[in-house]
Amino acid sequence: MFPRSGEAPVLWAPGSVSSWDPALMGQSVQLTHDPVAVDTVVARMRDLAATLPERDGIAVFNRVYLGVVETAGRRPTAHRAGGPRSRAALEVHLAERYLTAVDTAAEGRRAPACWRPLLEFRRHPGLRPAQFALAGVNAHIGHDLVLAVVDTCRTLRCEPADVEGAFHRAGDLLLALEERIREELMPGPDLLRIADPLTHLLGAWSLERAREAAWSAARSLWALRRLPDLAEEFAQRLDAAVGLAGRMMLTPLPA
């Protein structure tokens, strides 16, 4: 299961109350000093792109996500929001959440609820590529980004306010991902899109609102860190709610 090399433990394992033990704080500090960690994430995503069938739902999401990550990586660092340490840590923790969910399913274990709809219906013939891709974005921003903020605060021993710039940078990355999905995977000219059921289904979800909710949830989850039972319950309910939204996004539609 990812990470495969230069292991830094995932500080919030799905379903694990013990991951809130303060003794775990700072164990993955090496992520912020190791530029290879980001390259490892990209390499893992490239491996998925090379091995999965093109029409597979995870492959669709991974292909667009990888393209955005690679494009962002070529931009000058001076124009990126957030300090380099917090930005690198958050981006790696964020990608780990997604990759760990994929690996968990591949190993026959139960993935987080937010990823289960996409993992279960990834080969459904009645679903369109845009549905697969946006269901992945929903899981990644609604759940993974929240826990990645907490992971990063533990790694850097800081408060959410200290990584807010990095959070907005990650949110901008996901916004670019959504824009690419709509440009590349939404069907037909504009006049046809108005009547397309896909337009109405996906129009009910807003990335901007999801990003605002993710920041509030991350701050709330961080505030609950010394109440592990409540923190675990909060995280599980968040996971379930995001999974429900993803399941609705994957409603089969007529061609």
Query: Tally of extended strands?
Result: 0
How would you classify the helix and strand content by structural class? mainly alpha
- Strand coverage percent: under 5%
Count of helical stretches: 10
Summed up, what is this model?
The protein is 64% helix and 0% strand. By secondary structure, the protein is an all-alpha fold.
Task: List its salient traits.
single chain, 255 residues, mainly alpha, 10 helices, 64% helix, globular
Topology:
Elements (H helix, E strand, L loop, with lengths): L35 H16 L5 H17 L10 H23 L9 H5 L8 H28 L7 H22 L4 H6 L1 H7 L3 H17 L4 H22 L6
Helix pairs in contact: 1-2, 1-3, 2-5, 2-6, 3-5, 3-6, 5-6, 5-9, 5-10, 6-9
Structure characterization notes:
This protein is mainly alpha-helical and 255 residues long. Helices cover 64% and strands 0% of the residues. The protein is built from 10 helices and no strands.
